[in-house]
Design a protein that fits this description.
By secondary structure, the protein is an alpha/beta fold. Helices cover 47% and strands 13% of the residues. Keywords: Hydrolase, Membrane, Transmembrane, Transmembrane helix.
Length: 403
Amino acid sequence: MPYVLLASGVLALLTAANAIRPRRGLVLLIPGFFAAWLTIELAPWVLTLEVLVTALLLSWGGLDGLPGWLGLAATVAGWAGLAVVMIRARRTTLTVREAGAELELDPGERAPAFPRSQVIIPFLMTRRRGVTRVRDIAYGDDPVMRLDVYKPSEPGGLRPGIMEVHGGAWLVGSKREQGIPLLNHLAANGWVGINVDYRLSPRVKFPDHLIDLKRAIRWYREHAEEHGADPDFLCVTGGSAGGHLAALVALTANVPDYQPGFTDVDTSVRAAVPFYGVYDMSGLLDRASRRFASFLERHVMGTTRADDPEAYDRASPVHWVREDAPPFLIVHGDLDTLVPVAQARSFTERLRRTSAAPVLYAEMKGAQHAFDLFPSYRAARVIEGTERFLTSVRRTERRQVTG
């Protein structure tokens, strides 16, 4: 049993160390990401489990010998590491508050709180009181082109809309698993959300993913009022590949090449909230392994950067930055091992130099990629901050209209 305690302690220590400083090497990139992501966002539950396992091993004679004592020391060191992880997560409140300090909101108004019960028991996130979900509405001819609508259960006036774009490296992912905590929270506070599935690579190549999302906007313009939404007010959000596409949606409004057969549709959006997105495709390839770069060129882009460098520019949100860009809230984790935080920093810098609209940036200290997939403490605070940002955009526009 002492050796079991030693193994358990070493595992606890390595898990905490990887969460504090995730592995970035090619061999351990993916397993290191998953281990860090789950440990960081589930740190209180990981700590509870480790305490229970350690207590059980101690009751079974785990300290009978030097290996057991070494195992206990490693376990305690791992717990100290988890404490660091949780302290970092608590800083999210301050980060979100600082990022949104200049929002057009009543200073005394409190943000609607995300349900504490869903933070404690994350699997409750699929339901939210006062929210109705309508599933699998077709917005195009392809069977994949389906969207879910999240809306307040109580009828009311026309409400603002938000489109969620799922991530998954342009290859996988679904509306059934991403964006749910955010859309539920927004719908509970007076928004109508659409969660969109689009065609994926390698079946299609860029820009087909973007064109599909423009088709979803066309559907929204035509059917928003049926679901109590304002057809003239739509924002966009998404994470990872979805963050990349959400930024492109916001920056390529009414570009004819991305609206074949429906160039007359207004595809502009009022604000964008990309999470840990890719903003410079060439920059991503520069830092990627040769194998990943080749995979992306072959299966997602359908051409190499050497053969068509302009295609990689057109696929990069940073290439489309313009003065009349809509307001942006850019969110990224500083420990992201899949999409370097430098992408978000440089994109924010370029937007702030060029755009006349507000550009907010929230860098999550100690956060990995995909930190908002389920409602952790950090994700809950970011979701609350996103609602504040979007509500501010909505109110600012209303003030400008009413004079």
